[in-house]
Write the structure tokens for this entry.
Amino acid sequence: MESTGRLDVNHQLGLNDLPYIIRWEDSRCTRCGRCTSVCPVAAIEPGVYERRVVESTGATPLPTTVRKVSSCVKQSTDVMRRCIGCATCRNVCPNDAIAPTFNPANKFNWHANQGGEPYKRGGRRNDNNVSILDRIKFTRISMLTDPALDAGRHEFRVRTYLGRNLPPENLPLKVVGNDLVPDGTPFIPPVREIFPIRIGGMSVGALSPHMWEGLAMGVAYLNEVKGIPVVMCTGEGGMPPRLLKSPFLKYFILQIASGYFGWDEIVHAIPHMQCDPAAIEIKYGQGAKPGDGGLLMASKVLQNIAKIRGVPMFVDLASPPTHQTKYSIEEAVAKMITSMSMAWGFRVPVYPKISGTKTALAVLNNLARNPFAAALTIDGEDGGTGAAYNVSLDKMGHPIASNLRECYLNLVKIGKQNELPLFAAGGVGKRGNLAANAAALMMLGASGTDCGKYIMQAAAGCLGDEQNRCNICNTGKCPRGITTQDPKLFRRLDPDKVAQRVVDVFVSADKELKKIFAPLGRSTELPIGMSDGLSIDDKAVAERLEINYAC
């Protein structure tokens, strides 16, 4: 049955249904076409409209009515071409004639599941609330009771350990004269001394070549020139072969996840590696989408990505929700950690990364009994993601503060709080307070923290936020050129400037951490688990985290 025009109009969405409405000023616009050419989602396009104009001309002017056709900029009401609020159009407009405005009355969630497919997006959860980490204050200030330090003049060692720290009595060594000699069959777990803030896993493929190159250059400069031992996790997807065989590999944590993408290249490169990697991370889950596997959209799988990962071009790369050959915690620990340790001759720390969930304690208790487990990373619900279903981002997961605290206190009960390090992730630096959030997590029990989205915000100017602005990381249409493999888009990003900003971020974080630790009287070791120095203005949270209540 043929539909009428009236019914077609009735079933179209209006601009008020969309999350962003584009305001265009006719009088300012010069019709240069820059805005429509740079829009990554084709939300705007050139158009024409007819209007009625009253004119008075001639020697004896009489008002006459004429109709004129004028050019304009039109906004699409197609959900698949909705404006994402990135404001790239405004950035290139020479006359400030166009700008997106947020529409708080939008009904986007009612229409996002076109074709029966639930809405997927990148970025972080939609959240207007201030996180627990940002509400925590440092209230134990040493002035007269304990020796306070001057953050600008005292020597500080802001370092942590990645690897299992055996107590002296458990080391397979004995003292003979003035020397330490092996006792029996020695196995001393490998340990790395690193900066307590790491760059979390963001893969080659999820990030653009220019973004990944900028991060790698920044990390190498921090280690080689600034003397700040920052390490970076590769994420799932392997590494460029040239970097695998370079002396800079020691600054990278190689991640193996359930899809095993890129691991053929890594295994074949082992005999040719000039040095060992910083560690091996076995990813079982991520906080933004717990219980779900990874996903790299087909639009990002171009020739260079397909070659590194060993897959065909332009196919969706979906990782299973768990490693398919393991069916229990015990089996996963025994097989994965032991086999990865053996691959590098037990010289490299190997540890798992899990989502923040109520089952984290079960994983931790199994790791505590395994001599080859180097650490545990817990990723809380505020962690970012390259691609996830909206319902997973907004409705699933566990806050990192309480999950970490629960695990740390459990380690205290079994006497292993100084042996098995915990690393916390998920929303660290969510509102720009990177050093303060990291310090709060350390005093709750973390040996270090991971950050990912903060680095993209600070180093490359990511436009995404917690009000669902932009957040199209999964589509490969990133307007900044951060999460795309499209040369037209990622050429907007200068890897040298990304590297410089990465250096700036960590040099300033190092200074801020010293400013926080100095009043605590700490200079040679981190205040891990020093919860008596924390307070919050919420009694329920204070009781849950076992810290002070102050208002």
Notes: The first strand starts at residue 20 and ends at 24. Residues 132-173+181-549 form a domain with the TIM Barrel fold (CATH 3.20.20.70). The CA atoms of residues 307 and 313 lie 9 Å apart. DSSP finds 18 helices and 23 strands in the chain.
